Every structure is written in structure tokens, then in C-alpha cells.
Amino acid sequence: MSRKKAVCILSGGMDSSLSSYIAKKEDGYDIIAVHFNYGQRTEKRELKAFRNICEDLDIKEKYEIDIPFFTQIGASALTDKTIEVPTQGVKPGVPITYVPFRNGIFLSIATAIAEKEEAEAIFIGVVEEDSSGYPDCTDSFIEKMTSAINQGTKESTKIKIETPLVKLMKRDIVKRALELNVPLEHTWSCYKEEEEACGVCDSCRLRLNGFKEANAIDPIPYKD
Predict the structure, then answer these.
(1) Among 33, 63, 192, 212, which residue carries the largest CB count within 10 Å?
(2) For residues 194, 11, 140 and 76, what is the CA-based torsion angle, rounded to 10 degrees?
(3) What positions does the entry give for ATP binding (predicted)?
(4) What's the confidence (pLDDT) of residue 121?
């Protein structure tokens, strides 16, 4: 009897890593890990984190996919070096670090892989309440994408998009990660730096605040 399979979109960040651990350790899926190199500032460091987490979870099936066009369209501080990464804290509205329809594109590619691999689920570590205002991290977006991908695939293909973290706050994510022994020292969240995390971009601020509220110490290095 073949085991059930799930495609996990794994950036190497804390959220996607925890989501992958939940898929394997709690839900019992064999994991096919998918990572995207899309010209983000910390592309090399995120790829290293992805490979480390795959090793930690003993994942054999993995895809490393290049999407160069994000740097062509720019429009995001993550992919356009002429736009500064904001360091003044989270503000109302969609931030300049939003990459246009990134999760929609990621999910579309993951769907093609899931259909080929006959996987029944796609795990993505989106977080609605703590997502810095990204429109492609919401429950309603995921619900509509689920409908679209099942409409646009073979009738025999039935795929669920699983978002185990979508309603959690960052402190809860830290706590769950510690409970599941996720090697957080292997994860990377910083938008700006690859050697030592900057500590001041939106992603670092959310991460550090999550550890603080969870009464835990973040094991990755930060600039003084």
C-alpha cells in the first residue's frame, strides 16, 4: 500500500519549516519538498536553510526551482535592489516587501508537481494575522486557490491546500516549533542579510517578537 504524499513549499523560514514538520510528524505524509529561487536578496542563505531542513526531515524527493522573472518585474524590495528594505517596523497596508502574486505562482507550480507525483495535499506556511499585510497569505485566498487548482487539473486529481499556521501568531509558531523539535537554528527569516540577520526588517522584527513573547531565545545570529 502506497503512503500518502504531500508537496511542501519550503522556503527555509520558520513558518514553512514548521509547516513541513507538521506534515510529516503529525499528519504522517511522505514529503516532496519544493523550494523557489526567485532572485530574492537572501536567495543563497534561504537555499542553504531549505537543504538543511530537508536533511533534518530526511526528505528524499525535492525540487529546487528557479523563477528569474520576479527580478524582471521588480516592484518589491525583496527582488529589486534599487528599493530599500524597510526597517521602521510594520505599517498599515501592503508593504513594499510584497512580491506580486508570489504565493499564487508558487501554489500553481506546486500543483503541477503534486499532480505529477500523485500527492493529495500541498502544505504552505502562510500566516494570516501575522503576515505583514500580504494579500496572498489569507484564508480566503487559499480557499479560492484550492477551488481553482482542482478545477484546472485532471478529474482524478484531488488536492487540498493545507495551511496549519494560518490562524497562529508568531509566538504560537515559536512554541509549536519548539514542541516539535524543529531545528530553528537552521531556519532563516531575514529579508536583508545572509551572514547575520539584520534584526530590523519586518521579518526579523516579527520573528524576534515571537521569540520574546514565547519566552524563548532565537538561536540564529543577529547583527549587534
Answers:
(1) 33
(2) 40
(3) 10-20
(4) 98
Alpha-carbon 133 to chain mean position:
15
Phi, psi for 128 (deg, rounded to 5): -75, -50
In sequence order, the β-bridge partners of residue 7 are 32, 122
Listing DSSP states for 121-145 in one string gives: EEE----STTSTT-GGGSHHHHHHH
List the binding residues for Zn(2+).
190, 198, 201, 204
Q: Fold for domain 5-213?
A: Rossmann fold (3.40.50)
What is the pTM assigned to this prediction?
A: 0.96
Return d(Cα 166, Cα 124) in angstroms, integer. 9
Cα–Cα distance list, 87 to 12, 46, 83 (Å): 22, 20, 12
Instruction: Extract the annotated binding site.
Output: 10-20, 190, 198, 201, 204
List pLDDT tens digits, range 163-212. 999 999 999 999 999 999 999 999 999 999 999 999 999 999 999 999 99
The single-letter code of the amino acid at 135 is P
Residue with grid cell 532563516, as numbered in its chain: 188
Write the burial class of residue 147 (CB in 10 Å: 0-12 exposed, 13-18 middle, 19+ buried).
exposed
Q: Which three cell numbers stand for residue 39?
A: 532572485
C-alpha 182/C-alpha 205 separation (Å) is 20
Domain ranges, ordered by start, for the chain: 5-213
Dig out the grid coordinates for 219 from the structure: 538561536
Which residues does the annotation place in the binding site for ATP? 10-20
Residue 129 has pLDDT above 80, yes or no: no
